[in-house]
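Follow-up to my earlier ticket, as requested here are the two runs.
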Amino acid sequence: MPETRLPGTPPPAFPAKAPQGAGWLDHGFHVDNHSHTDGQLVYPASGALATTTERGTWLAPANRVTWTPPGFDHSHRFYGRTDVRLVVIPAHECGALVAHPSVFAVSPLLREALLALTDRPETRPGAHERLRAVVLDELAAAPEESLHLPEPRDDRLRAVTDLLHADPGRAITLAELGRTAGASERTLSRLFHTELGMSFHRWRTVLRIHHALVHLTNGHSVTDTAMACGWSNPSSFIEVFTEVVGQTPGRYQADVRQG
């Protein structure tokens, strides 16, 4: 997925060092690589968000929230006009969450707590701290649903993943990719498991889902998205998308439009 900065697009309207904030970002906005001394939750109340670190890319549609612990260099890309909600988790509270970047499912209560934290001024002392405690409690119980696309270090494996990034919908076998990369199918299969923690098939599926989310956010039909991203028919795409994302492509697209 290309990293695009829209010319003349203003930065997010988050006050410097504010504990939380909200703002609208246009499709394609890119926040350059940076890090924080505190943890950071970024929730796309509508649209979609990709967070990239040296460990790969995490994608969050509007039913997920991204988590970046302190000290991790990361960048963001936004797809669709995105209602961005930012909540800073002080470093001393970050032990309640996992120590690596991730994406969590957003329960109805977590969504309302995130919106309340970022929508309204603090009217009573300690109100935001109490809401943040609710957020942490919900995240501690929420499943990690990372839509994580790890990236390899091995040159042979990187040659393969670069080809797949360039054309995720291409029907090509691992053996065919291996001939281009100068490695056997068996070697590449082992590298996918040892370096990336998943099979070739699973990695390519997650890559295709990343691209499908962007296509759907851009208003392409479910059928056109399925064909562009490598599925032979819409029904198989809908089945896989629903299993990975947690909602049908049609429901996801309707939520994007409502946002």
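Run two:
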Amino acid sequence: MRANRPLAWLLAAVAGWNLLTWTMFARNLAEAHAAGEDRPQGYWIAHTGLIVVNLVITAVLAGVSWRSLRAKG
């Protein structure tokens, strides 16, 4: 199977962007929690869940991109 290199690079760029934005969001969320921001517990749980799910998606995109870029052909 021939790898589609431009698509692989696009996936790598999306994975990088996701990593940057979701880690920044995680840091901001952690800082808000540490500062005692008054939010319901569901807010913290839901946003932490979003961060985890999106970082898993980022890892999958990075893995697909990596395998595609390393493919021969």
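The only thing I checked on run two: Residues 5-70 form one domain. Let me know what else you need.
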